[in-house]
Design brief:
There is one protein chain. This protein is an all-beta fold and 128 residues long. It has no helices and ten strands. It has a four-stranded antiparallel beta sheet with strand order 4-3-10-7, with no helix packed on it. It has a four-stranded antiparallel beta sheet with strand order 5-6-9-8, with no helix packed on it. A two-stranded antiparallel ribbon has the order 1-2.
């Protein structure tokens, strides 16, 4: 029987995030565990979920601190960044020099010449 479920809240029966399964019971995915959009130079959060703060250790290098820790450090980090006014080279997001932990992940913004730099728009998502 196909249909649509309309609810205000979905809760997992455990401390893990809810999983989505097909009709055979095969897991098809989970929800994004954390995401954030922030300003590079000030590490000011524009919007986010499950991110308590951003710590800027130097230009282009940031520690994304989670409000609620991940179950372990085996998560995927993805991100993108936008130039904003005054930036001429494209930017990419990479995992920083520190290994991810359950409570935080370091990310670095790098231009096409390999230089670590701040950026106006930085967006990061964590999936586990």
């Amino acid at each position: 029987m196909a249909g649509t479920v309309v609810v205000d809240t979905i809760k997992s029966s455990t401390t893990s995030a809810p999983t989505f399964q097909n009709t055979s019971g095969t897991e098809m995915g989970t929800l994004c565990r954390a995401w954030v959009s922030f300003i590079g130079s000030s590490a000011s959060i524009r919007a986010g979920f499950n991110v308590s703060s951003i710590t800027r250790s130097q230009a282009g290098t940031y520690l994304v601190n989670f409000t609620n820790s991940m179950p372990d450090a085996n998560y995927a980090i993805s991100g993108t960044s936008g130039r904003g006014a005054g930036f001429t080279a494209p930017r990419i997001i990479g995992v920083g020099s520190s290994n991810p932990t359950a409570s935080s992940a370091q990310v670095t913004v790098i231009d096409d010449a390999g230089t670590v730099q701040d950026n106006e728009y930085i967006m990061v998502a964590i999936h586990r």
